[in-house]
Design a protein that fits this description.
Chain lengths: 99, 258
């Protein structure tokens, strides 16, 4: 997490905002900040200006391990023809309002 | 209460509301000058947010002032169509932005003042003022968190940043004395329970400032006598230029709306 001394750029942080109590934090974007406390202030100023949230997480972008897009075939394609994994073949009783 | 006393009080309240409102209005205008020029996009938005909060507070104070004044003037007319000598902000807020460090120092000094002022004003005998203070307090607490954290970063940062904020502190400190210099109007408002005693505001302010300066490894400068009285309309040379820019549109196109 060292700032790039050559360009003196602040490291990148990913921002997650919870819109309302009970909902998940959702990724809303990224920003630059010198450290996590500053990233929180920046996230508040950049991503909750219009009452978008009640809680913020910031995560150093470097801490995120991402799947490789070139491996998408082997990672995700095999699930395509296994529709039996979706619970769409069950009859849902009328009494059940939310599922 | 006699009719005369009520009238005196209304004029006094009107002037006092201008003090509160002009402080926000002028500082908001100053911070707006950073838009497009801040050191990072994130700070650009941070400073603009604070500017907008302050202009929002100015609207509340000046709208109320217009009603107390009773001549049918709205917030825009009061904000944009007065002469320099009719603005009653303390001169600290009209001082130029300087570098980012100087803007931060000015902001810390005012944010801490507004936090201490609004905290007490939320219990004002004037219900309208109490409501405005309670609403604004949430905003200025955040402002102080923003500016205070930057002061510590810069003061306790590199040799360069430390030297710059220390120079800014030495430059701006003398202007803080006026904030707490109680005059007849401040005294009247405190006697009526409309506003807190400035001596109380000052002790709370000093404690906050001392804590922040210690963390930022900065030394508090000594108070100095001063020759300006922004709270009475006697300003530094900087306000005229700020007003010229701020008032241009309303002067050029009176009553313009969009």
């Amino acid at each position: 997490m060292q700032p790039n001394e050559a360009t003196r750029d602040w490291p990148l942080f990913e921002v997650f905002v919870r819109a309302r109590g009970g909902l998940d934090h959702k990724h809303v974007g990224s920003l630059h900040a010198a450290d996590a406390p500053m990233a929180l202030l920046h996230a508040r100023d950049l991503y909750t200006r219009r009452q978008e949230g009640v809680s913020i997480w910031v995560v150093p972008s470097q801490a995120i391990t991402a799947s490789d897009p070139t491996e998408a075939d082997s990672l995700f394609e095999p699930a395509r023809d296994k529709i039996y994994r979706h619970p769409t073949f069950y009859e849902i009783p009328d009494e059940v309002k939310t599922l | 209460m006699s009719a005369v006393l009520v009238e005196v009080d209304e004029r006094a309240l009107y002037r006092y509301l201008l003090r509160l409102g002009d402080l926000c209005l002028v500082l908001g205008q100053r911070l707006g000058e950073w838009v497009g020029h801040a050191p990072a996009l994130e700070e650009d938005l941070g400073l603009a947010n604070i500017a907008l909060d302050l202009i929002g507070q100015a609207r509340l104070f000046l709208t109320y002032a217009g009603e107390v004044d009773g001549h049918g003037r709205g917030e825009d007319e009061i904000a944009f169509l007065r002469e320099q000598g009719e603005y009653f902000n303390a001169v600290l807020v009209e001082q130029p932005n300087g570098d980012f460090g100087q803007t931060i120092v000015r902001q810390v000094l005012i944010d801490a003042f507004q936090v201490e002022l609004y905290t007490r004003m939320a219990a004002s005998s004037d219900a309208r003022l109490a409501a405005i203070a309670a609403k604004s307090l949430k905003e200025v607490r955040y402002h102080l968190r923003y500016s205070g954290s930057w002061l510590v970063r810069l003061g306790d940062g590199t040799e360069e940043s430390h030297a710059r904020v220390h120079a800014a502190l030495d430059t701006l400190w003398p202007y803080t004395v006026e904030l707490f210099a109680e005059d007849d109007l401040d005294r009247l408002m405190a006697d009526r329970g409309v506003a807190p005693r400035l001596s109380e505001v000052r002790s709370g302010w000093m404690q906050r400032i001392d804590e922040l300066l210690a963390e930022a490894t900065l030394k508090r400068p000594a108070d100095r006598p001063y020759s300006w009285h922004g709270k009475r309309g006697e300003h530094s040379e900087h306000l005229g230029y700020l007003l010229a820019e701020m008032q241009y549109l309303q002067r050029a196109f009176p009553g313009a709306r969009w």
